């Protein structure tokens, strides 16, 4: 049976105190870090954010608290998420792999894909990465966990891949690591100094 990202799933992993692995404070710090890193590379406040595999759009509120004028677009395959939160948080239904074909009116300063890629099958992951790189203006925040990490939480469908595997696949897609889950694409890479880079 396929994994269901329905209300019961989000209630369990995001609201049930016995299962959830993050807090609102942890998320706010993560969002602040990603925004600061992005703005460092683009040299101005962010104007827009694409959140891939956004779930219920958890990044929406802390992002708006930091940058009220930044446009936010969330993509998620869950019918529940889009029907429940789509209009209020600007969420649309799409899988990670569909990024290979999906294009929008402008590129995104910040692309977020948090706690998603380690559940995506290899062929779909490689397809979707090309879309991220093509639509990336500034920084991609790709929070991914590996077989090298000690993990708690939802392990159903977890793809056991090494950190080296991800680094190679990201590099082949045209991404350069700058640390703390941050990756820049070809538009920003020429300005990354040797000691900023986590890939050299």
Automatic annotation (TrEMBL):
The keyword Methyltransferase applies. GO terms for molecular function: methyltransferase activity. GO terms for biological process: methylation. Keywords: Methyltransferase, Transferase. CDD domains: AdoMet_MTases. SUPFAM superfamilies: S-adenosyl-L-methionine-dependent methyltransferases (SSF53335). Residues 50-132 form the Methyltransferase type domain. It comes from the Bacteria. InterPro entries: Methyltransf_12 (IPR013217), SAM-dependent_MTases_sf (IPR029063). This is Class I SAM-dependent methyltransferase. It comes from Tahibacter amnicola.
């Amino acid at each position: 049976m396929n994994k269901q990202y329905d209300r019961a799933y989000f209630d369990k992993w995001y609201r049930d105190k016995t299962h959830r692995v993050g807090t609102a404070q942890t998320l706010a710090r993560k969002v602040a870090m990603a925004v600061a890193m992005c703005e460092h590379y683009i040299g101005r406040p962010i104007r827009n954010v694409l959140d891939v595999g956004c779930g219920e759009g958890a990044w929406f509120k802390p992002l708006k608290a930091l940058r009220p004028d930044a446009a936010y677009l969330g993509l998620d395959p869950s019918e529940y998420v889009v029907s429940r939160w789509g209009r209020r948080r600007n969420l649309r239904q799409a899988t990670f792999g569909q990024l290979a074909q999906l294009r929008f009116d402008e590129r995104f300063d910040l692309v977020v894909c948090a706690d998603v890629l380690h559940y995506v099958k290899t062929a779909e992951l490689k397809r979707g990465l090309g879309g991220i790189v093509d639509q990336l203006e500034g920084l991609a925040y790709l929070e991914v966990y590996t077989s090298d990490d000690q993990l708690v939480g939802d392990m159903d469908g977890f793809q056991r891949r090494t950190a080296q595997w991800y680094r190679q696949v990201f590099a082949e897609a045209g991404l350069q690591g700058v640390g703390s889950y941050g990756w820049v694409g070809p538009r920003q890479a020429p300005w990354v100094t040797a000691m900023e880079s986590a890939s050299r």
